[in-house]
Design a protein that fits this description.
alpha/beta, Rossmann fold, 2 domains, 5-stranded parallel beta sheet, 10 strands, 20% strand
């Protein structure tokens, strides 16, 4: 991906410096810094094509209600929010705004999770997923959640169509499939996928509203990387998807190391 710039929006010079120093020492990203909504807006307009994400303080002196977050999101820049406090209403607003992730500023001393979240967002720009479900509404829900994490996605309405999409798109790295579908259910689809694709190169996450322990075990034993019971919370979905992709990256790196020996 060409975009490699990260915007840090934080009104505290001390906090901003700490965050920027950690990102500079641990990541290859180019950093831009703003201390106000006005500065953030100017940087977004000037560097929109370079920015892939922004880490934004929710409450700024000239933007007490997260207006700086909305500026970034309106330009399709993934946004990770830093908040001084947290409650259910605030969480709901993050979900409605399609914020990629959020962290309490009280835990800002430990920046590793924040850095990991930004690195995953960056990596996700090169990930392509396939969403398989016979319900167009459910496919749309999952595709929208994937888009929040900057994952491009294709879709299929049943297992046979999914196999065709996979054959035509060998760069797909993640399949998210429902269980209950006509013709070929999700477990049968996983079996077909595993007959051609290694669990370390193509990840599969199963979904079902009939999430019994036995069904979870069937998915996993037949080659799924993970399983989610519907309905699920967006944060759980994000976490499972990103952790699955993190593991996939590690396995690919290990495979590459073995190949060089």
């Amino acid at each position: 991906m060409d975009r490699k710039s990260l915007l840090i929006v934080e009104d505290s010079p001390v906090q901003s410096k700490i965050i920027r120093q950690r990102f500079e020492s641990l990541t290859p990203f180019s950093l831009l810094a703003a201390q106000s909504k006005a500065e953030a807006e100017a940087l977004v307009l000037a560097h929109e094509k370079e920015l892939f994400a922004a880490v934004v303080d929710l409450n700024l002196p000239d933007a007490p209600h997260g207006e700086a977050v909305d500026i970034c999101l309106s330009r399709n820049i993934a946004c990770i929010v830093l908040a001084a406090s947290f409650d259910e209403a605030l969480r709901a607003s993050f979900i409605d705004r399609r914020v990629a992730d959020y962290f309490l500023k009280g835990s800002i001393d430990d920046l590793e999770p924040l850095i990991a979240a930004v690195e995953r967002i960056y990596a996700n720009h090169s990930v392509k997923a396939l969403v398989v479900d016979d319900s167009p509404t459910q496919r749309a829900v999952v595709k929208r959640l994937l888009a929040v994490q900057r994952i491009a996605s294709l879709e299929a309405g049943d297992g046979n169509a999914a196999l065709g999409v996979l054959a035509a798109n060998p760069d797909i790295r993640l399949v998210i499939t429902d269980f209950n579908m006509p013709g070929m259910d999700g477990i049968e689809l996983v079996k077909e996928i595993r007959s051609k694709h290694s669990i370390h190169r193509l990840a599969v996450i199963g979904l079902s509203s009939a999430g019994s322990g036995a069904l979870t075990a069937k998915f996993l034993k037949n080659g799924a990387n993970d399983f989610l019971t519907k309905p699920f919370e967006p944060e759980e979905f994000y976490w499972r998807v990103n952790q699955t992709l993190n593991i996939l990256d590690v396995m690919e790196e290990l495979g590459a190391l073995r190949g060089r020996r």
